[in-house]
Amino acid sequence: MQKKACQILSGKIILMAGLLLLAAFISGCTAPSSSAPSLSPGVTNGAIIKDPASYAGKDLVLKGKIAIECGSGCWFLLDDGTGQLYVDLAENNFAIPQLQGSTVVVKGVIRVENGDPKFFATNVTAGDRSWP
Question: What pTM does this model have?
Answer without folding.
Answer: 0.74
